[in-house]
Write a structure and sequence with these properties.
It is built from 4 helices and 4 strands. It is of the alpha+beta class. The protein has one domain. The protein has a 4-stranded antiparallel sheet with strand order 1-2-3-4. A hairpin with a 4-residue loop joins β3 and β4. α1 packs parallel to α3, α2 runs antiparallel to α3 and α3 packs antiparallel against α4. The chain starts with a helix and ends in a 23-residue tail after the last helix.
Length: about 180
């Protein structure tokens, strides 16, 4: 393994570990503290930001409520694919940080789905950060969102530099001569 790969994997592991730990600590705090408080006890900026305990059996924004088993399997699959891709392709510390954020988010919410009632692969995700007119989410969701935004930036930069983010695919979408893709 090259030095860059070792560093990127180490950074990915550290970021993922720290993210999952932060997610777990904040969720335990939310369960212990927010279950018995009024909505306005933890409210800032005129109610724009609140802490409110919620349990999500779906995906982002409550979509697919009740499909916890499906999301558990998809999360487990995504985490495994990210790890395989990371071991294969990552070469820079910032790539490790990006993938670490994604793994932290996936892992934090997957732990809830695997360990919370009513049982493995069917547990609800603990959410507690509420933004008025938006959604209720958690630290794991913040990690996923930041990781996804950084991934989009990486893809855009790679395309602009003509590196071709998707050049590793057998039938590359990132062909060097774009005219070849036009029928």
């Amino acid at each position: 393994m090259s030095g860059g790969k070792v560093v990127s994997i180490a950074v990915m592991t550290a970021v993922a570990g720290f993210g999952v730990l932060a997610d777990r600590i904040t969720k335990v705090w939310a369960l212990d503290t927010l279950g018995e408080v009024a909505m306005d006890d933890y409210s800032w900026f005129g109610g724009l930001l609140r802490l409110r305990l919620a349990f999500n059996t779906g995906a982002a924004f409550g979509m697919g409520a009740g499909s916890t088993v499906v999301f558990s399997v998809l999360s487990l699959t995504a985490a495994l694919l990210l790890i395989i891709f990371a071991l294969w392709k990552l070469r820079h510390w910032w790539q490790g940080a990006l993938f670490g954020l994604l793994l932290a988010g996936i892992g934090g919410n997957l732990i809830d789905r695997l360990t919370r009632e009513p049982g493995s692969f069917r547990g609800s995700v603990i959410d507690f950060i509420a933004v008025k007119w938006f959604a209720v989410f958690n630290v794991a969701d913040i990690c996923i969102t930041c990781g996804a935004l950084l991934l989009c930036c990486w893809m855009i930069i790679a395309e602009r530099r003509k590196v071709g983010f998707f050049s590793w695919l057998p039938l590359s979408v990132a062909a060097s001569d774009r005219s070849e893709m036009i029928p």
